[in-house]
Automatic annotation (TrEMBL):
Keyword terms: Chloroplast, Hydrolase, Membrane, Metalloprotease, Plastid, Protease, Transit peptide, Transmembrane, Transmembrane helix
Compartmental location: Plastid, Chloroplast membrane
Biological process annotations from GO: proteolysis
Residue ranges, annotated region (Disordered): 1-56
GO cellular component terms, semicolon-separated: chloroplast membrane
TM stretches of this protein: 293-315, 321-344, 356-378, 398-425, 445-467
Keyword Metal-binding: no
An example Gene Ontology molecular-function term: metallopeptidase activity
Coiled coil: none
Record InterPro entries: EGY1-like, Peptidase_M50
Organism lineage: Eukaryota, Viridiplantae, Streptophyta, Embryophyta, Tracheophyta
Job description of the protein: Probable membrane-associated metalloprotease that may be involved in chloroplast development.
Protein name per UniProt: Peptidase M50 domain-containing protein
Entry membrane topology: Multi-pass membrane protein
Length: 477
C-alpha cells in the first residue's frame, strides 16, 4: 500500500485537531500544576488542587476558547444589503448591492440605539437597509431625537434612520439605510417645463368650463376663441380658490421644513381643473408635520370657497350678470343644497327655474376641487391626512374602501370616473415613510383633519331631500 501523507489522508484533519487539543490540555495541566505548587509554597495552609478541579478548569478554558473563536468568526461577517428600496414610496438610487460592515452594525446596535432608546433584540438585512427589531424605550419622539443625534455623531450623514411600525406585528422597528438610497430621483424633463405645460392647459379648461356655448360643441372652440373671454370671471374665481389652496400648502411646508415640488395643475373640461399634484421631495419628520402640511391646503381653499359661496347666495344677481338655473343643480352637493334651502327658503322649488348670482357656481366649483383632493386615498391631501391621523395600516384600508366606492360612483358620474383613473395611475401611493411614524399628532390637529374629511364628504355627497315638501305626492293605501 502506498504511503499516504498527512494532507492526502481524509482523516488527517480530525486527527490533527484532536492532537492539538491533547497538546493544549497537557500544556494547561502543566500550567495548573506549576500554579498549584507555587501557591502551596507561598501559603502552607492552602488546600491542594484536586485533579477533578484541574480537569474542570481545563474544560472551562476550552469551552471559553471555543466560544471566543465562534464570536470572532461572527464578527467577521458583514451584512449584505440588496439594491431594492426597503421603504414604501422610495426609489432605490444604488445601482448595485452594498455591504455594511459588521463593525458598523455593532456600533448601531450598542452605541446609536442602546438600552435607553431602542434596545435591539435582533436585526436582519431588509432590501436596501437593515431592519432592527427590539423594545422602544421612553417617549418615541425624544428617543428618536437621541438616536438621530448619535447616528450623526458616529457616521455624519452616511446613514438615515426611520422609526416605523412593523405591519406584521404592529410593533416599533428601526430601519437604517444609506442616505443615497432615499435621495429624490431627478426626471429627464425639468419640473418647471412640465408644470408650465399643464398650467397652460388648465387655464384653457377653466375658461372653457365657464362658456356653456363652447362646452356644448368642443370642436368649435378653436374657431371661436374670442368667446373664451366670457369665461374669464369664473376662471379667475375658481382659479383663485385653487391657487389659495396651493399657497396654504407652501406656507405650512416652509414652517415645517418640508420641501415641495412645483405643483402640477390637472385640467378638467367638466369642472375646469382637478386641482394640483404636489410631491413631497424630502423626508417629513413625523405625522404631526405631515398633517399640518396636508391640511393647510384644504383649510385655505375651503375657507375662501365657502365665504365666496355664502356671498354669492346673499348677493342678488345684477342685470346681465345673473344666470338662470334649475334647482336640480343644487341636489349635486349636500352642502350646496343645504345652504340653498337655508338661504333661499321658499323661493327654491322643484322644477321652478330661478336666477342666481354666478358667484355661487364659480365658488362651488372651487369647493368641489378642494373636496376631491380631500378624498382619503393614495397621495391626495385626504390620504396624507388619514395616514397622519390613524397610521399607515388604517389609512391603507380606508383608501382601498374609498377607491372601491369611487369606482362604483364612476358608473353614474363622469367626474368620479376620471378622478378614479387619476388616483389609480398618478396618486395611488404609497406615501413615502416619515422619519418617525409612531408619535400621534396633537388632538387639535386631529380634529382639524376629521373636519376636513367630513366637509369634503358633504361637498361630494348629493342632497337627497326635496326642497318643497308640499310637492310630495300622497299615495292611497
Amino acid at each position: 500500500m502506498p504511503h499516504q501523507t498527512k494532507d492526502e489522508s481524509p482523516n488527517a484533519e480530525p486527527l490533527n485537531s484532536a492532537l492539538t487539543s491533547l497538546q493544549n490540555i497537557d500544556r494547561y495541566a502543566k500550567a495548573a500544576a506549576d500554579s498549584a505548587a507555587q501557591t502551596k509554597d507561598e501559603s502552607p495552609n492552602a488546600e491542594p488542587v484536586s485533579a477533578s478541579d484541574t480537569v474542570r478548569n481545563i474544560d472551562g478554558d476550552a469551552t471559553a476558547a471555543a466560544d471566543s473563536a465562534a464570536q470572532e468568526q461572527v464578527v467577521e461577517v458583514d451584512v449584505n444589503v440588496a439594491s431594492g428600496s426597503p421603504l414604501p414610496g422610495m426609489k432605490q438610487q444604488l445601482e448595485e448591492a452594498v455591504s455594511i460592515p459588521k463593525a458598523t452594525v455593532d456600533i448601531l446596535k450598542d452605541q446609536v440605539f442602546s438600552f435607553d432608546t431602542f434596545f435591539v433584540t435582533s436585526h436582519e438585512p431588509y432590501e436596501g437597509g437593515i431592519l432592527f427589531k427590539g423594545n422602544l424605550r421612553g417617549v418615541p419622539a425624544k428617543s428618536f431625537e437621541k438616536i438621530t443625534t448619535r447616528l450623526e455623531n458616529k457616521f455624519g450623514d452616511e446613514f438615515k434612520v426611520f422609526l416605523l411600525i412593523n405591519p406584521e406585528d404592529e410593533k416599533p422597528v428601526a430601519v437604517v439605510v444609506p442616505k443615497q438610497t432615499v435621495e429624490p430621483a431627478t426626471g429627464s424633463v425639468p419640473e418647471w417645463a412640465a408644470a408650465g405645460a399643464f398650467g397652460v392647459v388648465t387655464i384653457f379648461t377653466l375658461l372653457l368650463r365657464n362658456v356653456p356655448v363652447l362646452q356644448d360643441n368642443l370642436l368649435s372652440t378653436f374657431d371661436n376663441l374670442e368667446l373664451l373671454k366670457d369665461g374669464l370671471p369664473g376662471a379667475l374665481v375658481t382659479g383663485l380658490i385653487v391657487g389659495v389652496h396651493e399657497i396654504g400648502h407652501i406656507l405650512a411646508a416652509r414652517d415645517a421644513g418640508v420641501k415641495l415640488s412645483v405643483p402640477y395643475f390637472v385640467p378638467s373640461w367638466q369642472i375646469g381643473s382637478f386641482g394640483g399634484i404636489t410631491r413631497i421631495v424630502n423626508i417629513v419628520r413625523n405625522r404631526g408635520d405631515l398633517l399640518k402640511v396636508a391640511a393647510a391646503g384644504p383649510v385655505a381653499g375651503f375657507s375662501l370657497g365657502f365665504g365666496l359661496l355664502l356671498l354669492g347666495f346673499t348677493l342678488p344677481p345684477s342685470d346681465g350678470l345673473g344666470i338662470i338655473v334649475d334647482p336640480a343643480i343644487f341636489h349635486q352637493s349636500f352642502l350646496l343644497g343645504g345652504l340653498a334651502k337655508l338661504i333661499l327658503g321658499d323661493v327654491l322649488k322643484e322644477g321652478t327655474q330661478l336666477s342666481i348670482n354666478p358667484l355661487v357656481l364659480w365658488a362651488w366649483a372651487g369647493l368641489l376641487i378642494n373636496a376631491i383632493n380631500s378624498i382619503p386615498a393614495g397621495e391626495l391631501d385626504g390620504g396624507r391626512i388619514a395616514l397622519a391621523m390613524w397610521g399607515r395600516k388604517v389609512s391603507s384600508r380606508l383608501g382601498s374602501v374609498t377607491i372601491a366606492l369611487l369606482g362604483l360612483s364612476s358608473l353614474f358620474s363622469d367626474v368620479a370616473f376620471y378622478w378614479a383613473v387619476l388616483i389609480f395611475f398618478l396618486q395611488r401611493g404609497p406615501i413615502a415613510p416619515l422619519s418617525e411614524e409612531i408619535t400621534e399628532p396633537e388632538n387639535s390637529y386631529i380634529g382639524l383633519g376629521v373636519a376636513i374629511l367630513f366637509l369634503g364628504l358633504l361637498v361630494c355627497l348629493p342632497y337627497p331631500f326635496l326642497f318643497d315638501p308640499s310637492q310630495v305626492t300622497d299615495f292611497d293605501f
